[in-house]
Every structure is written in structure tokens, then in C-alpha cells.
Amino acid sequence: MWAADALKVMITKQKAFNRAVSRFYAGKASGDVKIVVRSSKNKQRKIKIAIINGIDDVQVSSVAMSNRGGLCDIVLLRNTLGYTIIQTRRNGTFRFNLGNVIRNLRIREARAIAVENENEPVIIPDDLLYVEGTVSAAEAWYYHKPVESILNGSSTHPDVKKTLLSLPAVSRILTEAVEYYLSRYGNNKK
Amino acid sequence: MKELTNTQKIDQANHELVTHCNPHIDELVGMYLELREGTTNYQSLRFTSSNLNLKKQFEDLNITGIGIGNGEHDEHKVDGKGSDADSAVITIAQKLNLTKDPRYSGMVNYAHTNDSKGATISGELGTLITQMYYQGKSEEEVMKWVFEILDRDVALSNRSKERKSFLRQQRGNMLSCSEMETILDTFNHTDKKVKRFVLPGSFTINDVAAVKLAQTFGFNLFNTNSHTRAIFVNPFTYEPKEGDLCIGFGQDGFAHLSMEKMVKVLRLPKNHNYTLVYEYIHGINSRSGYHPYELASLLSDRIFEKNMGVGNSKTFCGQLML
């Protein structure tokens, strides 16, 4: 049955989402899921970040950005294999710009590769630090500009190299970018 | 035709069309256009994972990469170089001069928008494709399913007014009933001794949804060994038999209730596994406009083609499964 198969897909999707909701709350209880909130100085603007560690179900990221997960603006998820993704939620017309995050990730990744290989780090030209797609000197990270997401591995490209950066390091880069944004633009009413 | 897992294996191939694992709607439509309208006679199709720049290797080995390989049909840039388009399908449509072709422009625009900006509703083709991979379907299965839809879209492309009006007509049916309550009620009253569920051959998405919902509650309607099962009939020639329960037609005395009412009457739990289907079907009933590539439209087209005997979409995709 053609349409039944399609509806089964929707039911499977819902089942997966419901499972991910349970995993999200279990993760909150166990400390695998942490919610970090950063506010502007005048407290008018808040950005909520979910930092998820050691969970292989990417749907948990969708849960974090949904009503049931507390409408997080940004999700940083690292699975058990060490692959890491950063996703953003569209809120009306706003979506957090990850330009500064990808810039710093690429610089730090290139340095980490140099340390591992015991050679001089590749200096990535300024005009490549923010570009969409991949930069060969830090090929672990793919920047998808239209939906503001940063991917290190995905179901379509499972053979990508794992990042050498630790989760706390990635998390720090992300929160610093959020703090910078809030200090610069967070006090504006618009 | 299974995936390559590393680049070394590529040298076994010649005149291949290659895309990445779990291809999205833009790569699938791109492959469809290239296979249907392109000049190259491909010997095989592959789904592969790759590391970075494969442009040189692809060129040397007569491989056309779609959404992969950093060539002209790969929107994933490396070091800022690569196609300027936001999706693979646009580059292929431009190359084949199909962006304004009425047979293909709809699918090209949809695939491009879905890939670059994301989906807008839950029953969209692009979303269904992504979820099929999560469900464990192979690339080949998904491609075959999508190509059949695209074949039909091309075959019916010159009948857009009729398709729209048929969909509006279908909407009337969609509004008329969901039989889920009847099914559940029947299971609660064993004295009715239902042996078969009988569905009209031209069933609506609402009827199908009812059956799917029944299955989520553990009723296996399609198990022929079971004492209850479902059959499809022509409502005009169907002769009732003892133990038949007609769904969506006939005068069997069962009330036709909307899905919304059904959920309330049965006090079904919120956030259950059926929620997405329920909300989608409910949305169909309350919306006035439909996306041409959403499930309701795709099903309507399928019935339209069957009922009217129009189009010639016979297994074009079958020829491409090398």
C-alpha cells in the first residue's frame, strides 16, 4: 500500500521523536544534557544552549529545540564516536549566526592537527575562515550557512574525520561567540 | 549497486553516476533529470561516502558526481571553490536547460527550496525521504519510490488544472470520515464477528490513515492468517459477505466520525505515536491550499492517474535500476 508506507514513515518519525524525548530527559537527569543560558546585560535578550554529550540519537537535538525540550536556540551534540554537530533554531526571522563559531573552530582545529602531526599549523586565509562548506586545513567541519549549522560527520558523509577538539573546547568557542553577540547586539530592542 | 566506502574502489567503475549516501531530494531529482534528459549513457549508479576533493579522480574515471566530488554538480564547497548554486539540482537543470521546462520546473524548484531552506510541512516529499532512511530503507528503495512519483509528475504535467480540481474533490472525501473509531469499536464488541475490513479501491488518505492508526494500536489488518484482514474492492461491483466491515463506503450502519472527534471520544493519549499522522490529516481537512509535493497531493495524483487512465508513467524508474 503506497500511502500506508508513507504514513508509516510519519508514525516511525513520531516514535523516534518520542523515544528521543525520553532520552533527552534521561540525559538531563544523568548530566549528559546540560542547558546553558546566556543573557544580555539588560536581561532583555536570552540565548539558550543545549550541550549534549554521548548521545547517538540526533533526534535529541530536535527535541532540545522543540517545546518539549525548552526551545533551545542552539544545540551542540557530540555522539559516542566523538562526532559533533551544532544546530540552530529559527525563531521568527532570527537564527543565530554561527560565522564566528566556524571561524574559531577552523583555527583551533588547524592548530590541533599541527600539534598531533608535530608540524607548523596551517594558517587559513581570513577569507576562508567564514566560508560555507569545508576548508581543507580543517576538514572535519562543514558549515551549512542557509540553516546555520556546523557538521562534523553526518548520515550522508559518515567517513569525515573526527574533530580533535574536546567537547569543552567546542562548547567554550560556542558560548564565547554567544556572549560576544549578546554584548554587541543583545541590548538592542530589535 | 551498493555503496562504496572509500575512494580506492572508484577505479572499478566507468561512466558512473555517483551521489552521496542517503541522498536528499535535490540529489535524487538531479539524478532523475540526468538519467532522463542527460546525454550520457550511464552504466551504473552508486551511493558513496567520500572525503574531500575528488574532482580530478571523478573526471579521470568518467564519473559524474551529484552533490559529491566537488565538481560542477556539487554544491558543497571546499576552500570556497565549487558550484555557486545552493543545490545540486539547479546546476543539472541549468546544464540541461530544463529550469523553465514545464515538465520539470516544479520539481526542480521544489527540490532546490527544500534542500536550501528546509521543509515547511511535515508531509512533504523531502521530509518523507529523510525519514525513510532513518526507518532503515536503502537508497535504492527510496530512489525507486521517488522516481515513480517524479515519473507521474512528468506524465501529468500538462493537466495541472484537472489535478488541482481532483485534489479539491478528494478533499471532500478526506473531510467525510475516518473509520478508526469504527475499527476500534469493532474490536471492543466481538459479537460483531468482523472477518474482513473492506476498503474502496480508490481509498482516500484518510482511510489509509485509519488503517495505519489501527496498526499502531496492534491490529494487524494485512495478516492473511489472521481472522481479520483488509481487502480492496470496487465499491460499485462489490457484493457484501457475512462478516465484512466496509470502510469509507456502503451502508453498514457505522457512524462516520472525524479523526478529531475520534481522538476525543476515545480519549487517546497526547504525544502518542499517531500524533504526527493525526495532525497531518487534521491539517489537510482544515487547510484550503495544498503543497504540490505533499503526501495528500501525491496520493491524489496517484488516484487521478489510475482513475482517469491518463499519463504514461510506467516503470521508467525500473529501467534505471541497474
Beta-strand portion of chain B reads 5-15%
The count of DSSP E runs of length 2 or more, i.e. the number of strands of chain B, is 6
Largest sheet of chain B: 3 strands, parallel
Strand portion of chain A: 15-25%
Number of domains of chain B: 2
Query: What's the SSE pattern of chain A?
Result: HEEHEEHHEEEH
Radius of gyration of chain B: 23 Å
Mean pLDDT of chain B: 70
Distance between the termini of chain B: 7 Å
Would you count the extended β strands of chain A for me? 7
Low-confidence stretches of chain B: 1-13, 172-192, 223-228, 251-259, 310-322
As a whole number of angstroms, the C-alpha radius of gyration of chain A is 18 Å
Instruction: Give, in spatial order, the strands making up the sheet with the most strands of chain B.
Output: 2-1-3
* Largest sheet entry of chain A: 7 strands, mixed
Mean pLDDT of chain A: 90
Report the helical percentage of chain A.
40-55%
User: What is the number of helices of chain B?
Assistant: 13
Oligomer: heterodimer
Low-confidence stretches of chain A: none
Description:
- The complex is a heterodimer of chains A (190) and B (322).
- Chain A has 190 residues and is α+β, with helices and mostly antiparallel strands.
- Chain A has one domain.
- Chain A has five helices and seven strands; from the N terminus they run H-E-E-H-E-E-H-H-E-E-E-H.
- Chain A has helices at 2-30, 59-65, 99-117, 126-129, 167-185; strands spanning 33-39, 46-53, 74-78, 84-88, 133-134, 142-144, 149-152.
- In chain A, strands 1-2-3-4-7-6-5 form a seven-stranded mixed beta sheet, with helices on both faces.
- With 322 residues, chain B is mainly alpha-helical.
- Chain B contains 13 helices and six strands.
- Chain B has helices at residues 25-37, 55-60, 88-95, 105-117, 125-134, 139-155, 160-176, 180-188, 205-216, 259-265, 275-286, 295-308, 316-320, and strands at residues 16-20, 44-48, 63-66, 196-200, 229-233, 244-246.
- In chain B, strands 2-1-3 form a three-stranded parallel beta sheet. In chain B, strands 5-4-6 form a three-stranded parallel beta sheet, with no helix packed on it.
- The longest helix of chain B is centred in the middle third of the chain and has 17 residues, at 139-155.
- Mean pLDDT of chain B is 70; it is low at 1-13, 172-192, 223-228, 251-259 and 310-322.
- Chains A and B meet through helix 1 and strand 5 of A and helix 5, helix 9, helix 11 and helix 12 of B.
